[in-house]
DNA sequence: TGGTTCATGTAACAAGTTACATGATTAG
DNA sequence: CTAATCATGTAACTTGTTACATGAACCA
């Protein structure tokens, strides 16, 4: 296996909360999930078919309006079981973050390289924006304490992502400050 | 294009420092580079051929011992140019970290979930180990200040990776501490 | 009636992993 | 002499992205 097909478990995880259509799932990857995983509908629809053949999900067709058919998928008992297994199994592989900017930095040899300031500055801007964006999401998604209780994992990882961005921003600022002053 | 083929630039970046064989490059991905990017030899050898047809690198054959042939690749002027372009071009896409553990956490709904403590504990152990490992590398790779000068980018990102792990460990400890006490 | 969103699919391609395959050199 | 490492390649497969393709429903 290439790397365990995580997509199937994300789909199962989402369907474990409530029945959804392929379209709903696609939207979920643009919103909540999108913060830490991406998938396009062209990957989702075939995966849904595979999961159904395997018996982990099933669907019923509902009709909106005159004839628009939607396939509303729900998880089966077997699906719930393998989802539980996946979550319970250890996660010993720490994924190396494939950050293109970090990669570029690696090839900068001297701290006098004229490209360094603008490169760091650009990232500072990007990560600051992302930081504010996450701060906003944390505020809007978990307004009342009850939602924090009902979606504890989501709360934990959003908070984690926020902290990670905060560190990234700090590191960029420090690196910029440590640069030799141009004259 | 799928996502810009970063591998080719990593290879060019490494060859920009000194001529290397495919085998050397493979080793580099297991060591320095391995901290933030992976590639197997089965991906490297074909990429080398493509880069050579494109005129960005060239090789000469050297013979070790009686008949073992090595292809020592070096970068061409054109190769240097597109490497410079890649580094100079902005990097506006922040890669979402595809962290499997974070994904699993997302599907944990309650802070009373019995799996939470062991899951956090496992990650704490893994990230602590990685933290120490990075600390060690920073110490061994940059013993004298001169090397820090000559490989400034490498120094920056190693230090960044260390800080990132430090934050991860802190977050895990905090999350563990915040868990409701079992009775 | 016309543009945006809803809704579902396939095709072609790029990137990345695992497995298959072979042979030379070196150090103990 | 034999095991580990050096050295180079291909094949098969999985995962992920972009593009192609179609049509219904909804809102202004």
Automatic annotation (TrEMBL), chains A, B:
Transcription regulator PadR C-terminal domain sequence ranges: 97-179
Record domain Transcription regulator PadR N-terminal: where: 11-84
Database matches in InterPro entries: Tscrpt_reg_PadR_C, Tscrpt_reg_PadR_N, WH-like_DNA-bd_sf, WH_DNA-bd_sf
Signal peptide annotation: none
PANTHER family attached to this UniProt entry: NEGATIVE TRANSCRIPTION REGULATOR PADR, TRANSCRIPTIONAL REGULATOR YQJI
Name this protein carries in UniProt: PadR family transcriptional regulator
Organism of origin: Lactiplantibacillus modestisalitolerans
């Amino acid at each position: 296996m290439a790397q365990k097909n995580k997509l199937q478990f994300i789909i199962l995880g989402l369907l474990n909360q409530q029945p959804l259509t392929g379209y709903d799932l696609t939207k979920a990857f643009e919103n909540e999930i999108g913060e830490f995983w991406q998938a396009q509908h062209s990957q989702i629809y075939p995966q849904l078919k595979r999961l159904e053949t395997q018996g982990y999900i099933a669907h019923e067709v509902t009709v909106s309006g005159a004839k628009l058919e939607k396939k509303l998928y729900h998880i089966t008992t077997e699906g719930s079981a393998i989802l539980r297994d996946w979550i319970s199994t250890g996660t010993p592989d720490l994924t190396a973050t494939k950050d293109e900017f970090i990669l570029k930095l690696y090839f900068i040899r001297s701290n006098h390289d004229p490209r360094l300031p603008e490169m760091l500055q650009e990232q500072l801007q990007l990560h600051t924006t992302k930081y504010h964006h996450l701060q906003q999401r944390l505020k809007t998604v978990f307004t009342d304490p009850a939602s924090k209780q009902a979606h504890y994992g989501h709360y934990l990882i959003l908070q984690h992502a926020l902290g990670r961005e905060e560190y990234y921003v700090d590191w960029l600022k420090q690196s910029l400050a440590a640069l030799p002053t141009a004259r």
